[in-house]
Specification:
The complex is a heterodimer of chains A (154) and B (221). Chain A is globular. Chain A is built from one helix and ten strands; from the N terminus they run αββββββββββ. Chain A has a single domain, classed as PCu(A)C copper chaperone (Immunoglobulin-like, Sandwich). Chain A is mainly beta and 154 residues long. Chain B has a single domain, classed as Glutaredoxin (3-Layer(aba) Sandwich), CATH 3.40.30.10. Chain B has a seven-stranded mixed sheet with strand order 4-3-7-6-5-10-11. In chain B, strands 1-2 form a two-stranded antiparallel sheet. In chain B, strand 1 and strand 2 form a beta hairpin. In chain B, helix 3 packs across helix 7. The chains are: A mainly beta (154), B alpha+beta (221). At the A-B interface, strand 2, strand 4, strand 5 and strand 8 of A face helix 1, helix 3, helix 5 and strand 9 of B.
Chain lengths: 154, 221
């Protein structure tokens, strides 16, 4: 490598360009600042799994996507949706594990549709409890959400 | 439009299609006609005609948290029994159904709500225990039954009598993370053991309450 200073200079130039590009992006409105999560709640767990619901509002002019979640109260999370197939209700993972929220739009994760499935939760969670979780969005954006545990409603 | 509303329409169409096993044009006629399913103005759900007789279906109830008590599919005299085929590893649709039924019963006059009980039959006896089912349904309603079939034949018989179907994803014997598809309908059974009404998934609790009140009056005066 020492014998080829031209290569090194070229590499440094590329790095510098990338850094410049990134800082240019961050100077624009950060979409992460304009994501709001409303009406989040967790259903009282029937067993080891339960569902998290919320309405996600994207107030930015950039498309964003919900890509997952983390928390202490569940072992793992998957983005799921309930659909009718033939005459049966089935649940399937959301394609690509991404729920896209368009610029200026909102998406409701609501009972009987899309939801964040929490896997491996404590079955002792009861009405009146609150759980804290972090929703992960595209671009490395994270939102901490405190969600009440509810039996009736939604 | 909330997802559940959309699903309700889809469920209705699917039920109708299943009922007459005919092209969808005919199925639409069946919703407002008499070919197996009928609607009543102001009520939600469907009337099955003729009403299926499920009185010979007998499963084990764990409501008293013992080893299971034989439970025939017949409501107490002058009452309605709401029957649902579900499973406890169901994080979305089953709890939503129970939540909606609970909200509906709370919306009814207490003396009428007291004449309605709710039974959940597990279609996944490999993972579900009777007492767990009772405990869970009790989160939502006062008069809860958790039903387990004594064997696979009894469960299949129940599904056939009610017209409920389910599908368990193939899995290794020790696996616990398999998927289950199932009919998400609530069957309304009277005190002679007949399914007099069906509530499809995604109905509003207030509408369910109104329909159950109407069914109590229509059936028992």
């Amino acid at each position: 490598m020492f014998t080829r200073p031209g290569r090194l200079v070229g590499l440094l130039l590329v790095v510098a360009l990338v850094v410049a590009a990134c800082s240019g992006t961050s100077q624009a409105d950060d979409p992460c600042e304009k994501i709001t999560v409303e009406d989040a709640f967790v259903r009282v767990p029937p067993g080891a799994n339960t569902a998290v619901y919320a309405t996600i509002v994207n107030g930015s002019d950039t498309e964003i996507a919900l890509e997952g979640a983390t928390s202490d109260f569940a072992g793992a999370y998957e983005l799921h949706e309930s659909i009718m197939k033939d005459d049966q209700m089935i649940m399937r993972p959301v394609e690509g594990q991404r729920i896209v929220i368009p610029p200026g739009g909102k998406v409701a994760l609501a009972p009987g549709g899309m939801h964040v499935m929490a896997i491996g939760v404590s079955e002792e969670l009861a009405e009146g409890d609150t759980v804290s979780m972090t929703l992960r969005f595209s671009g490395g954006c994270e939102k901490v959400v405190d969600a009440p545990v509810k039996a009736i409603g939604g | 439009m909330r997802p559940r509303r959309f699903l309700a329409v889809v469920v209705g169409v699917a039920l109708t299609a299943a009922a007459c096993a005919a092209p969808s044009e005919t199925a639409v006629t069946a919703v407002s006609g008499d070919a197996g399913y009928a609607v009543v103005d102001g009520w939600v759900g469907y009337r099955r005609t003729p009403a299926p007789d499920v009185s010979d279906v007998e499963l084990l109830d764990f409501a008293d948290m013992t080893d299971g008590t034989p439970f025939p599919m017949v409501a107490e005299p002058g009452e309605l029994l709401l029957v649902y085929f579900g499973y406890l590893s169901c994080p979305d649709v089953c709890p939503t159904t129970m939540s909606d039924l609970g909200a509906a019963l709370r919306a009814m006059p207490p003396d009428e709500a007291a004449r309605v009980s709710v039974a959940m039959i597990t279609v996944d006896p490999e993972r579900d225990q009777g007492p767990q089912i009772v405990k869970y349904v009790s989160v939502f309603v006062d008069r809860a039954h958790g039903l387990v079939a004594p064997d696979a034949a009894a469960l299949a018989h129940a599904g056939e009598r009610f017209g409920a179907r389910w599908e368990i994803e193939e899995h290794e014997p020790s696996a616990t993370d398999y998927e289950v598809g199932h009919t998400a309908t609530v069957f309304v059974v009277d005190d002679t053991g007949h399914v007099i009404w069906e509530l499809n998934f995604g109905l509003e609790p207030a509408d369910i309450a109104h329909t159950l009140e109407g069914l109590l009056v229509e059936r028992y005066g």
